[in-house]
Amino acid sequence: MLASLIQPLQLPSPNKDAFGIETQSSRTRSMDKLLHDVESLFDAPLRPRSLHAMSEQLQAEFRTKLQSSNICMLPSFHYALPTGHESGDFVALDVGGSTFRIAIVHLSGKESAREGMDIKRMKSFVIDEPIRDLKGKAFFDWMAARIEEVLGSDKSATVPLSMAMSWSFPIEQTSTRSGSILTMGKGFRATHGVEGQDLYELLMDSCKQRNLQVQLQAIINDSSATLLSQAYRDPSTRLSLILGTGMNSAIYLPVSALSQDKYGSRSEDWHASAKDVLVNTELSMFGKDVLPASRWDQYLNATHHMPDFQPLEYRVSGRYLGELVRLILIEAIETADLFSGMMPAKLQEPYSLDTGTIAVFESDSTSTLCKAAIAFASAHPLPAGRMPSTRDLYFVKQVSRLVSGRAAALVATAVHALWSLQHSLVASPKTVDTQLAQQPRTHATVACNGTVMEKYPGFRSRCQNHLDELAIMSGQSRGAISIEMAPESSVFGAAVAAASESEV
């Protein structure tokens, strides 16, 4: 359980009195009491049996949403996983909120060097305010100009290069390579005058005006790209997890697992070809009535501009880990004399405590936590230039460990629930002829990406430890579900999507 993974921190000894006898001030007792309160709320609910029961409840929620929801458990148009033998050069586009990345990716088969995936060249372009202000066709003309810049001599190839795009914005997809563009948010004005038009046509028209020899084959989201990129390397990959500022997951399921209403008006050819389908779970939206909630979780949710919308994300993603710690620290300052009761001015601002800052606390192995002290003081200086005491710093470190430790346990539980759902659906007689059923089920790989999983100290290993415990409780062996990082998954996944669709 979590307590076995997080060794309790011993706060430095309080001062000794004139006779050399250690004494505890009321401040020390109060801080210890609050720390015990945090531990009971964040650690106690995470015993293995409790997590396993949570997994079963999440599975029930997944099954309900597979049949009824129009905002989660959404089937894509992608029904074929890569064989790992696809080869060639592909143009991969990764369109995010602040960066547009373009890569020429060479696939040579997983038996070759570098696992068969290599970036021949790649360039990133900042999407700043002037670019976000581009309206309609002007934005796609800008994209095409950047593609031309990266293609270089390849732009006039005799055979068009297959291209795929990881699109980090809303879209009502109508095929593997087309969909109606929806309001993008994040300050973008690109949909002005073209909202509802086909994203494929908008981009390809701009590319054709520049005589670019490219053909858009696929549009995917980041969770699907992560799954596809790892599946190219490892055929046991059937799940993906994105855990950074936000979170999401994709899963490969039998078509029959979802209600027919979910598929809309797809062609008979699609239904004839598709036995399994890549599903965007929108995992962040699950768990409202399942996940443990402390008073700080309840406050975060109540003050959020979209309360209850993404209950799992509010507990585990990079945007919220620092915020939960901030709320606890404010209570500690006001009631337990943390920082001698002095409130850093900026700490009162919502979301001002960055998750990167609490990560420094967890990675600081010095006895005085000097690195953490510098990081915290630079972002949240105390009044009059005071510095936090070592006891204060250790309190912040323990709170950070409890918050991130609970997040790791809940992420593992959600992944286990998805794996269990998939395992049960694949075992169903209705799916015996699917590609899924033909794969051995003794081991499953979860393809991961995102800064929390990649960079937060010890997060991935804690997730894996919980997954091992849950797998054993499910009658499987330790390591039956393994987390594997999928580097550069947006561009590699887009390239794999283009390759897969080119061969269909």
CATH architecture of the domain at 75-225 and 486-503: 2-Layer Sandwich
Shape: globular
**Beta strand %:** 15-25%
- Averaging pLDDT over every residue, what do you get? 90
What would you say about this model in short?
With 504 residues, this protein is α/β, with parallel strands linked by helices. It is built from 17 helices and 13 strands. Residues 239-499 form the Hexokinase C-terminal domain.
Structural description of this entry:
- The protein is of the alpha/beta class.
- It has a domain at 75-225 and 486-503: ATPase, nucleotide binding domain (Nucleotidyltransferase, domain 5, 2-Layer Sandwich), CATH 3.30.420.40.
- The chain has 17 helices and 13 strands.
- It has helices at residues 2-5, 26-42, 48-68, 129-132, 137-151, 199-209, 222-233, 268-273, 295-303, 313-316, 318-335, 355-363, 370-379, 390-426, 451-455, 459-473, 489-503; strands at 74-75, 87-95, 99-108, 117-126, 161-167, 171-175, 178-181, 214-220, 237-243, 247-254, 276-280, 444-449, 481-485.
- Strands 1-11-10-9-12-13 form a six-stranded mixed beta sheet, with helices on both faces.
- A hairpin with a 3-residue loop joins strand 2 (87-95) and strand 3.
- The longest helix is centred in the C-terminal third of the chain and has 37 residues, at 390-426.
- The chain is globular, with a radius of gyration of 25 Å.
- Residues 1-24 and 429-434 have low confidence and may be disordered.
